[in-house]
Amino acid sequence: MTPVTREGYKFCQELCIPCYQTDAHLRLKPAAFMDIAQEIAYWAAQELGFGYDTLHIHHTAWVLSRMHIRFHDIPQWRNNVKLFTWHKGSAGLYYMRDFLLLDGAGNRRVSATSSWVVIDEQTRRLVRPEELGHLLNIDYQVDDAIEEPCPKVVLPKDAQPQLAGEHVAAYSDIDLIGHTNNARYMVWAMDCLPQDYVQAHSVRDAYITFNKETTAGSRVQLFTLQTQEDIWYVEGRVDDKPHFVVRLEF
Of the candidates 246, 120, 105, 222, which has an alpha carbon nearest to the alpha carbon of residue 161? Predict the structure, then answer.
């Protein structure tokens, strides 16, 4: 992995897309983009003084709440790309961070915007900005990879999704703060869709909203809904309560 460097208010990293992050058509998977995005986000936050190590001292942690990813031209295996991220300030309980993936010619390949919250590692409750004191009092730049914050994703009213299967959160799903890593939910969502469909179509926009965390042993029922030819929803429920919802536009 190449080091994360700083260019003005943005942090960046040069990457070469590896085979294990791509699908049968050599395209970067949506979950793989979420993986590399969260890694550079951790590094950038650490450099600005509010990363994992700093928050962990105070028994708090970053948790992704919402994310919108737009694939302009999906990178492929062996493509050399450059990933940028920057902090965009806060809005209520949410802390905003954008991402931009460019190819060697400077063309926009992927844009993303994300909303994060801070939780107490012990109680798992949300921590309000005023409780964090000086930790997050930093300068930020108003610059948009995607102008609008990711909206809350919900199933359409009166929708009747179909049960697609069940997943039990296990070792490979759990991350460094003891719950299912955000990118794993996108893996579950993509695996729910008909494989002939996802192989024949490319994701254009992916939206994800997290309502409640899942931990090892959680039994997540997965429901799918196709509202138009190119729009799918996947909702994960535990004990009949929605824990996450994904909207995929192909």
Answer: 222
